[in-house]
Amino acid sequence: KYFPWVAAMDNTDMLPRLSMVAHAISRHGSVASAELSHDGEFSRASRDEHGTLYGVVERDNKYGRVEQMSEEIIDYIIDRYYSAAVFAKQCGFGMVTIHGGHGWLPQQFMSETFNTRKDRWGGSFENRMRFPLAIVDAVRRAVGPNFPIEFRMSGSEIDPGGYDIDYGVRIAEALDGKVDIIHVSAGVHEIDRTFFVVHPSMFLEDGCNSKYAREIKKHVRSYVATVGAFTEPGQMEEIIASGGADIIALGRQSLADPDFPMKARAGREEEIARCLRCNGCFENAGKHRIFRCALNPEIGQELEAMRTPPAVIKKKVLVAGGGAAGMEAAIQASRRGHSVTLCESSGKLGGVLLCEEKVPFKKHLSEYLARQEKLCRELGVRILLNTPASPELARAESPDVIIAAVGSKPIIPRNDGIDLALCAQNVYEDPSCVQDRVVIIGGGLVGIELAIWLGMSGKKVSIVEMAQNLAVNINDMAHLAYRAALEDHGVRIYLSSEVRKITESSVTVCGPGGEFSLEADTVVYAVGREPLDDEANSLHGCAPEFYLAGDCMTPDNIMAATKVAFAAANNIGRM
Q1: Beta-bridge partner residues of 225
Q2: Which one of 74, 130, 345, 469 counts the least CB within 10 Å of its CB?
Q3: DSSP 176
Q4: Are residues 122 and 233 in the same domain?
Q5: Is residue 2 part of a domain?
Q6: Same domain, yes or no: 367 and 436
Q7: 3-state SS class at 255
Q8: pLDDT digits (tens, 9 = 90+) for 101-130
C-alpha cells in the first residue's frame, strides 16, 4: 500500500464498510469497481514484519533499501491478488481494476527501466510480462468468466530512458482479450517530472494523455478507456466518436462536480464546475486522509451537506464582497432559503481573481467565476455592483446577517526605489506595461504564476525570493508542476536573496554570496497580501450576526475561501 490508511482488500474487518460503499454506488445503477494496487518498491506500508521493502530488483530508492522479490514472494503476491478479487466480489463490487500503471508493481515488472532481472521474471519482453499476466489470470480465476476486469496501464513512461508508446502498444497487445477494459494513462507517479502528467497539471491541455489511448485502440479488440484532464463534454464525445477510446474516465473532475454526467447529458454544460487542476484534493488526501475541493466545498463533508435542512428561520443576509468567498456565501445562503443581497465595490464580480482571466493556464478559473455569477443570478441573489460595503449601506439595508468578504490588498515592500515597481495585479490587468527584462520580487504563488505567464510570452524573467524555497505555502504536488513550468520558460530563480535597491534599469540584490545586480526594464512586487481589516471591522456592529470569509479573514487560496464561506452560510438560521 502507498499509505497505511488505504483500504485493504485482504482485511475481512473491512467487509461491512466496503459492502456499504459498493451498495451506495450500485444502487444508483452504476457499476462499483474495486481497484487492486500493489506499489512494490514505492510502498510506504506493505512491508514484512522486519520492515523490509520489496521490489522487482535490489536497489536503493527514496524510501530506503529495496530487496529483490524471491520466487516465493512473487507467488505469494499473485495469490493475494486472487484473494483480493474474491473479497471484492464478496463485498458486492461488480468489477475489479488491476492498477498496472503509474510505476506501481506490475509496471515495475513490465518496464525495462525497473526490471533488470535475468531470471524468468525479466530479460525478454515475454518474461517481463509474466507477472502482470499471472495477476490477470489469478483475478480471472477468482471472479469468473462473466465478471469485468479492467487493467490500468501507462501508455508511455514519458521519462527519458523509460518505455514509449510503441512499447505500450506491445503491453496492450499482450493484455488484449485477457481483460475486458484496457485503461490507458501515462507516466510514473514517483518520478517528479512525470508526476504532473500522471495527474495532469493546469499547464497541460485538456485530455493531454488521450493520444496514448488512441494509438493503443488501433491495435486491440478489448475496450479502451482514456483518462486525464477531461472537463469538456464536447471533447469527450469527439474522442469516442472518432474511435480514440470507448470509455472516458474522470477523476478530479468528479470531485469538482459530481453531477457532471447528468449536466452533460441534459445539455447544461455552462453549469459544469470544471476542475482547476490545483491538486488540492490530492494534498488534503495525503495529509489529512480526506478529500477537499477548491470549487466544491461539500467534498469531504458530504453527509453534513446532504443533511443540512433548509433554514428554520429565514433571514435577510448582506454579503459584502463579490469574490470567490462572497459568491459562495451568497449561493449557499440563498439555497438555504435566505434573502440575499451581494454588494461589490467594482463593476464586476470575481474579486482579485478577475485579473487572471487572460492567463491561458487559468482558463477554467474564469469559467468558474462566470458559473458562480450565473448561479447567484438564477438563485435570485440581489447584486449591487459599484457599491462598496459601508456602515451606511448596512443601515439602509438593515440585514439580520452580514458576511464580510471584502478581500485583501497587496503588501507594498519598502525597498529603495519601490515607486518604480509595479504591483502583480496591475501587470495582469495591463501586460502592455511590461518590457523585456523582468524582475519579480517574491516567489510565492502569485509571483511564480506571473513569472510563468510572462515567460510564456517571451519575457526574460527572474524571481528574487527571501526564503530558502519557492511558494512554501502551496501543496507539494502542485509544486512539481510549477517548478517544471518555471524551468521550461527559462525563469531564473534567486533564493535566500533580498532586493536592496531598484533603479530604472536594474535591481541590486543581496544573496548568499553577497551583492549583485540584475538588469531589469520592469520590476514587479508580489510579496503577499494583507486583509482589508478596517473595511471588514467597520461592518461588525451593523447586524445581529456577523461572519468573516475569504481574504479579509486570512489571505489564502480558493479552497480556504469557499470552505469558510460555505460554513458561514450554513450556520445562518440555526438560531
Answers
A1: 183, 247
A2: 469
A3: B
A4: yes
A5: no
A6: no
A7: helix
A8: 999 999 999 999 999 999 999 999 999 999
